[in-house]
């Protein structure tokens, strides 16, 4: 497989990673309460950026998302891990990127800081995503297309099946991908024509007053949005009123609610009884993201409302258990919480095996730019279905990106620029760099 993947992915040989630098990028969103929820009341949407310098034409750019304090710690972790890719050829790394991924997650000392969770895994995501960005730029293709152009054998070869093989092994994954391979071109054409369905969170941030929620909902409807999410979890009366306002504005369109982990299991079940009249599509993160059995209990109790989680599910093993326990109705992958593209592909395959739709978490800083690629990969290569699937969108901070996520009539347009869409404009780096950027003076 190695020589085939090398030819397919890189088209230009012997680009060597010569160095790495990081940048602490923070947007002061706490000033407007954009992104606020029941737990994270004053987020500053941030990215720990990594730049893989090369002896070729391009550099690889990657990022992991945080909400402010601690972003500098992610940068430090990235610098510690990046020594494992500096000095190596990009074609070598991508030709066997499952091995690259295992190298990064198996550093004999740094692994202790996870393993495969928390700060060290966020750093892994930034580096892995930067390698893929570099590969896609070198090939002159958007990341989604780089992956979609692979053969089923090459696609499955990107995944590390350790800890998964009791549920999903390489042969079964290969069967899933092979079954869809002959019809990939038709789905790509469909997405280029129609876009990928999205839902909007921007109207429902918890810190927004009622009139702002109304104004934003009306503006979103005028722009063609057909699916909405609101934040809940402060107090029952407030949540009931918030859902009433959203229903008054959007009518019978799909509405979801997000509790951002604020409740105990019993509390979540009781709280949701008060929200039954609003016909919610799902309740998101109703309790601790690590409580697999708690999610299962909540799911049984609140049906037919679905349960969604995953933006804080640290790795593929957490998703494996959530799926095995029949604990969730929607898989919410995060492009940075998981360890980059390779681990995302593993979770897409797991979700397909269990027949659970993938609805990625986005918003934040750069997350929409990332997950638009992942949703396309899921539909084209893994699930072959748009049934009950929507990808999150929040409409702030996209002006900082050279190739921002684009929306038309509530759907993501397929990204066409080479790379993984995460490069910012130079003036945005200058403005948002902590603590000396102009936005922080």
Would you give an account of this structure?
- With 441 residues, this protein is α/β, with parallel strands linked by helices.
- It has two domains: 2-154, Enolase-like, domain 1 (2-Layer Sandwich), CATH 3.30.390; 179-432, Enolase-like C-terminal domain (TIM Barrel, Alpha-Beta Barrel), CATH 3.20.20.120.
- The chain is 42% helix and 12% strand.
- The chain is built from 17 helices and twelve strands.
- The chain has helices spanning 2-10, 71-81, 90-95, 97-105, 118-139, 143-148, 152-156, 170-180, 184-194, 210-222, 236-250, 265-274, 292-302, 316-324, 341-354, 367-383, 426-432, and strands at residues 17-26, 46-54, 60-66, 196-200, 228-231, 255-258, 282-284, 306-309, 330-331, 391-393, 407-408, 411-412.
- The strands form three sheets. It has a five-stranded parallel β-sheet with strand order 5-6-7-8-9, covered by helices on one side. Strands 10-4-12-11 form a four-stranded mixed β-sheet, with helices on one face. A three-stranded antiparallel β-sheet has the order 1-2-3.
- The N and C termini lie far apart (52 Å).
Q: In CATH terms, what is the fold-level topology of the largest domain?
A: TIM Barrel
CATH superfamily of the largest domain: Enolase-like C-terminal domain
Strand content: 5-15%
Q: From the helix content, strand content and strand pairing, which structural class follows?
A: alpha/beta
Order of adjacent strands in the largest pleated sheet: 5-6-7-8-9
Count of domain modules: 2
Spans of 5+ residues with little confidence (pLDDT < 50)?
1-12
How confident overall, as mean pLDDT?
94
From the N-terminal CA to the C-terminal CA, the straight-line distance is 52 Å
Strand count: 12
Radius of gyration: 21 Å
């Amino acid at each position: 497989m190695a020589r085939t993947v090398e030819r397919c992915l890189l088209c230009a040989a012997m680009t060597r990673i010569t160095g790495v630098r990081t940048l602490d990028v923070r947007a002061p969103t706490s000033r407007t309460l954009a992104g606020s929820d029941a737990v994270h009341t004053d987020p500053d949407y941030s990215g720990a950026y990594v730049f893989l310098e090369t002896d070729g034409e391009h550099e690889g750019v990657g990022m992991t998302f945080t909400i402010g304090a601690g972003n500098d710690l992610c940068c430090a972790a990235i610098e510690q891990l990046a020594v494992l890719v500096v000095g190596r050829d990009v074609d070598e790394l991508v030709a066997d990127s499952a091995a690259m991924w295992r190298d990064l997650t198996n550093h004999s000392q740094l692994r202790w800081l996870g393993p495969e969770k928390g700060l060290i895994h966020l750093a892994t995501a930034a580096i892995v995503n930067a390698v893929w960005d570099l590969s896609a730029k070198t090939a002159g293709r958007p990341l989604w297309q780089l992956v979609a152009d692979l053969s089923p054998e090459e696609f499955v070869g990107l995944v590390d099946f350790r800890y998964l093989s009791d549920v999903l092994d390489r042969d079964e994954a290969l069967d899933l991908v092979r079954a869809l391979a002959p019809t990939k071109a038709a789905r790509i054409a469909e997405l280029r024509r129609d876009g990928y369905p999205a839902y909007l969170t921007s109207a429902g941030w918890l810190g927004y007053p009622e009139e702002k929620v109304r104004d934003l909902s009306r503006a979103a409807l005028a722009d063609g949005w057909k699916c909405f999410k609101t934040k809940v979890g402060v107090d029952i009366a407030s949540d009931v009123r918030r859902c009433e306002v959203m229903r008054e504005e959007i009518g019978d369109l799909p509405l979801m609610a997000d509790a951002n982990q604020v409740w105990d299991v019993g509390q979540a079940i009781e709280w949701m009884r008060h929200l039954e009249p609003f016909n919610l599509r799902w309740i998101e993160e109703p309790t601790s993201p690590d409580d697999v059995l708690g999610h299962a209990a909540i799911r049984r109790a609140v049906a037919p409302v679905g349960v969604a989680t995953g933006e804080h599910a640290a790795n593929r093993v957490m998703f494996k258990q959530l799926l095995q326990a029949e604990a969730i109705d929607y898989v919410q992958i995060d492009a940075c919480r998981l360890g980059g593209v390779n681990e995302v592909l593993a979770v897409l395959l797991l979700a397909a095996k269990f027949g659970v739709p993938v609805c990625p978490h986005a918003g934040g800083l750069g997350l929409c730019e990332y997950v638009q690629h992942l949703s396309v990969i899921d539909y084209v290569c893994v699930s072959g279905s748009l049934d009950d699937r929507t990808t999150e969108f929040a409409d702030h901070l996209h002006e900082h990106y050279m190739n921002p996520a684009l929306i038309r009539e509530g759907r993501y347009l397929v990204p066409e620029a080479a790379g993984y869409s995460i490069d910012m404009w130079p003036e945005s780096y200058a403005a948002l760099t902590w603590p000396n950027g102009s936005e922080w003076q």
